[in-house]
Design brief:
The protein has 155 residues and is of the alpha+beta class. The protein is built from 3 helices and 7 strands. A 7-stranded antiparallel β-sheet has the order 1-2-5-4-3-6-7. Strand 6 and strand 7 form a beta hairpin. The longest helix has 16 residues.
Length: 155
């Protein structure tokens, strides 16, 4: 009986201990992160109410793995002023090396709109920062993607 225990212990030690040194030598390749781009921004006509916007956002999956996206939220800042926030979901899984265009109806805060109108008096196209948080299935933390540039014209 002691011989069987000893043999079982040695087999278990071999099975558990052998992969550990090989794990130390394994180095994952650099992760290819998805990209996000603001394609367009349109004002939706809402007489008598605060303006709403339709943002067209393109998500690009350059990796060779699928990208499952459950939902996304976005925040657009123009010249440092948070202007609009929006949410879209549920979304589809992006195949490898593909892109998905998402249209998001976003709301705005009237106070931020007033701050922005004061900063836009210069007449130059405003610079923007778009922060998109991709919610993925089975993960707690969202994947945060940032896009910056000159604000695209309306469609």
């Amino acid at each position: 009986m002691a011989m069987i225990r000893r043999t079982a212990f040695l087999c278990l030690t071999f099975l558990v201990g052998t992969p550990l040194p090989s794990c130390a030598l394994w180095r994952p390749g650099p992760a290819v992160l998805p990209e996000v781009h603001l394609d367009s921004m349109r004002v939706l006509d809402r007489p008598g109410r605060s303006p709403r916007y339709r943002l067209s956002v393109r998500i690009v999956n350059p990796s060779d793995h699928e990208l499952a996206v459950a939902a996304l939220s976005c925040r657009l800042k123009i010249r440092g002023v948070p202007v609009v926030e929006g949410f879209a979901g549920p979304l589809h899984t992006l195949p490898p090396e593909s892109a998905l265009r998402v249209e998001i109806d976003a709301r705005t805060n009237a106070i931020d709109q007033l701050k922005l109108s004061g900063r836009l008096a210069g007449g130059a196209p405003p610079d923007y920062e778009l922060e998109v948080r991709l919610r993925r299935p089975w993960t707690l933390m969202p994947l945060v993607l940032i896009d910056t540039g000159a604000l695209p014209m309306e469609d």
